[in-house]
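Weekly puzzle thread! Below is a chain. First person to post its structure in token form gets bragging rights.
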Amino acid sequence: MKYKPASKTKVYFLIHCAAIFLLFGCANTPQATEKQQVNTSSKDTRVVVEKTTLDKPGEPPHVLVFTKTKAYRHKNISDGVYALREIGKGSFVVEQTEDSGVFTSDNLKRFSTVIFFSTTGDVLNKEQQGAFEQYIHSGGGFVGIHAASDTEYDWPWYGQLVGAWFKDHTDVILATVRREDKTHISTIDFPDSWRRADEWYRFRTNPRENVRVLVTVNDQDLGEVTMNGDHPISWMHEFEGGRAWYTGMGHTKESFLEPEFRKHILGGIVWAMGPRANSDLNQPNTKPNLKIIAPLVK
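Winning reply:
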């Protein structure tokens, strides 16, 4: 029997079917629903904002994690951002950026709180500082982690928001931290006494007069008494219409693997969100579940 080539009509039909199959197959791959990275450029800096895409009803509130550094850069920033994404699952959506251009009045309205995670140096210009002040005055939340107190020394308002500025630090050593406040959401599961390794910050002033101290560290463990035996390391306060929560812990990547520290951070974020978590502009009618969840381990 001689081979008869397929007619052009049959060939076109098969090609058409294959194209339809590929089209629908690609649309259903995991890549279509996973997190996306948005890259745009500005005159001075390159904007890199990673966001988790959640298009489902009941989307949790959004938090901005700001990690820009103009001085020392901590090696654990990527580990910390990873941990923040993990502990926020089901409670909030993390958007992380190194670009100060996102600090505009309109854009900041999208966030229930802004987290300065180991920022250093002068990271905002005057206009951006004004937008952030307006955000706090309108009820916004602030969370500072570790080197957030080593930031913006020429901006007095920021120093008051953080509570105290960094002075110097120890090496990574073991020291005992003690829970001073047992009722705050960020210390409910915090040990009464906990010996842990970190790089310990000493501050230029004692913030106690202006804040509610949550956790202290034993001065004598640091090699010398630098704060008259009273050394707050985590605290919070209501500030000019908004909320501010800070911890000086979190220098090492191992910190963000500690369940106790993760719960401490999560509680601080949840508290700083305050009422804005129920009126977040990303999902105006959402009242997310903000209970403390068991942290995962990387």
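Puzzle host: Confirmed. Bonus trivia for everyone else. DSSP finds six helices and eleven strands in the chain.
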